[in-house]
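quick one, two chains, predict together pls
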Amino acid sequence: MKKTKNLNRRDFIKLTSIASASLPFALSGFPLYANDKPKEYQFNTENDNILVLVQLQGGNDGLNTVFDLNQYDNLQSVRSNIIIPERELLTVNSTTSFHPAMAGLQNIWNKDKLAIVQNVGYPNQNRSHFRSSDIWNSASNANDFVSSGWIGRFFEEKHPTFPENYPNEHNTDPFAITIGKIVSETCQGNLSNFSMALEDPENPGTALASNKGNIPNNCYGNALSFVNDTIAQTNAYATVIEKAANAGNNLSEKYTSTNLSEKLKNVAKLISGGLKTKVYIVQIGGFDTHDNQIVEGDRSTGKQAVLLQELSDAIAAFQEDLELLNIDEKVIGMTYSEFGRRIRSNAGLGTDHGTAAPLFMFGNCVNNSILGDAPEIDTAVDEKEGVQMQFDFRNIYSTILTDWLGATKQEVTNVLFENFEALPLFKTGCSAALSVEDFLSQKLEVTVYPNPTTNFINITFFGNNENVKITLYNTIGAIVKNITNKKYDTLQHKINVDLQNLPKGNYFVHYASKGVSKTKKILKY
Amino acid sequence: MPYLDPFSGEFSSKEANQLLKRVSFGVTETMVAEAVSLGLQATINKLFEEKKLPEPPLKDLPDGNDSGQIIDPDVKYGETWVTAPIYPDLPTSQERNRVFRYRNRSLYAWSFLQMQNSGISILEKLTLFWHNHFVSENTNPHREYFYMNTLRKNALGNFKELTKQITINQNMLLYLSGHENSDKAPNENYSRELLELFTIGKGAAVGNGDYTFYTEEDVVQIAKVLTGWRARWIRHEDSLNAYFTNNRHTKGDKQLSHRFNNAIIKENGAEEYKDVIDVIFKQEECSKFIIRQLYRWFLNSEISEEIETHIIVPLAEMLRSNNYEVAPVLKALLTSEHFFENTFCMIKSPLDLMLSATKGLKASAPNINITEEYNFAYVMYLACTDLGQSLYHHPDVAGWKAYYQEPLFYKTWVNNYFLPKRLEYCKVLVLGGKLNINNRKYTVPPIIPVLDIAASIPNALDANILIVELASRLFNYDITQEQINSLKAVLIDGLPDFEWTVEYDQYLQEPNNSALAISVDKKLRNLVAVMVQMSEFQIM
């Protein structure tokens, strides 16, 4: 039954080698940035930086992940049934601690390779898993529906015709790989998804390429060419992946048998095998802990503990592997989850959908730091309240795109639809980090008074010849007022805000300027 | 554009094929012929015939302790286990888990068999629709079976009534934390999905927790309405039915937002859930939402403004005037001009693919005894699971991405991981061989009766006619002459056409000549194996 050999005929070609169609533009290696590269960016032209995205599906409870000891007592009073005993926490610095399952990430912090960004979210938080994941993956405004992903649009800047004539002489390797069965929406372009789904790198799978019949100009033709293209690319990329998998290696002994550990192990192997893929996406599900987030009687165990352990151990093993393989200079990782959870726990030993949460970045070039403020916990917090956003996740995307993946400012604005300032997330001298002078260096002083208030508030701050954006949010993360969004000179400024039309309750004043963000809670009564 | 006007064209085998592919699984030439002779209206009536629930799943493994056998204290080989105690009385949890596992396996195989054995009936496609709409997961085989029974019983019935039943179904209470939802500890998990995924859908976020059709406040209030419902412990004598406990229920009236005209749900204890569902179903959007879901399930993922105006809105109106009975609306859609005018471009789900490559090709699935019958069905279930469509185990509460994730929709079934497997599985089912599923190999005999298929084609002596007719059965649209030529080259290895005619004719003269039969079978099998790997076969 070897008749399939017939398929080697002209019309039934089994593509086992890379198509060598010629390319319209001549770029060597992985394309880095357009010719309009601003002078202040110090990229080397062979930027081979790699980004690993770790998606925590379900909405991780950030308040049970990173603890601030100054807030611990207040937190205890609003989630007395699930809070982890203070003595069991792992120390990060004098005021910050981790969940006891996170020794791995603590270790990376101790190695000076971990950034913790507090309170990451977006304006007008959507509390649906699916919609909020779409928002994070597409990097759209909460109110816009965008079906492409941020990584996909980034690749599209340089490769607008993908997938036609890819791979080719200059782009031999997949742009992105999702380890798993389904491609990540982050990589969705307007024409096609830039990532491959890969379960087993040693056996990426090949497919029979049937001859192409008529491609009518309707949805049938569209579906047909989608299948045809998938076949062609599968076959073309299979060879390079297999080669990299065979040439690659793993040196860390710390990998375990968890799913995430296996996935990251494969990523390390492919990178060490020389695959030039820029972005890898791995996912870990199960963070939707509406109930039994912890085990009563032994609170450092339970659903979330198991997940944090898997996450933290897998990342620690991966990071160590990169170091042993001597490829740690070119890889960073970032975790993200569609939302954090409510501040108050529910009585089912769980937590419901909330707002912002901390996010981790790891890698040699990551600036070991805690960016942002510990969430302030009010013991009288409303049952619907989540952690208020301090940083928009798109500020982080923007930083990664310019400082790590080598996009120009203009490209990033195209990708993210508007301009988002970069944050000091990378070490200087490493990668292509922006110069530190770009960030506001003086201590930020924003005051809001009177607080509590009945009818109005005053906001005072010093300008810095930079744009200042001040927004008023309610307790579920929805914008209730855009207060200002313009450039302010170096004097002290005062803005009077009328609150008479707003219902009584808690609100948050969010201040953002040149990579610095602050949130102040106010009470209107 | 006559849209929902009744289809006035000829209901030929082409139309019958298109219709049956979308409403049933694995369409055979016999089904098409029957539909054509019935005509469209009678075919529709047959599709929607009410059916008794199928015979329940059986213990498919022989009694004993050897490999491939199992002792179930309450069930003998060939009997059903669904009437046996839900919690078998066995000394160790290991033994109990073995019993649970064979029951799960029997259920999954049985569920596949329902699709495999269904003829001209929309019941199984609709049951699967509701399975993907009201996603709920539970590992206990009894709980899984009875949940699916609820869906199957109501599949052709009333959407509002089904929503009420599901809301207090113990599987759903366990799956979306309704069981935990109490006055002291409200849990919004179910109330959020009830609105977002099950009934009204999420509109644009217009600020302050308002999603156009409902608000965050509604999520909170509806959670309160639903407090007090509990699932029973598995060892309880009535463990399959939920119960209401008033002391966990939030007392007093609950008020919804302006999105529901500030409706007040009066304190009504155990009946309150029905009141709130009635309020939700009064919203026009609720009817439009489910019509869009059905449209995506049966027709197309793209809903243009034109479709919204001329198809969705009028059907939604019809659904409301029928008090949410789904059958009349579906009948209208499936007999409309629009249905048959539409371009058929849906990428097959794994279940559609596997069944079109077996049942659709007249495969005689092994059925010498129930062990074999279930075994094969279970392997098919595993294959579909491996291709991303696992019965009873959705990726999450939103169901399979193919039916909601923009912009890919059905294309999520086809990526560089799934596609090679889809092609390989189809090929192995035709040629016979080993199905490699999750690193385990399952031997499949060549179950496609290619000689019978050829025999059903008039003038199959002509290689061109043979191929064109096969293509018209397997694919939605005609293939090109160039493709036909390539396929002929597969059939007769590049020889002139008459070589096929001569050889097939010889076989027809001497059907008992086994050397000839083998030779012709091999040629035909190779041809079909290539055709099921063509991109055209991925689409229905």
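The mean pLDDT of chain B is 94.
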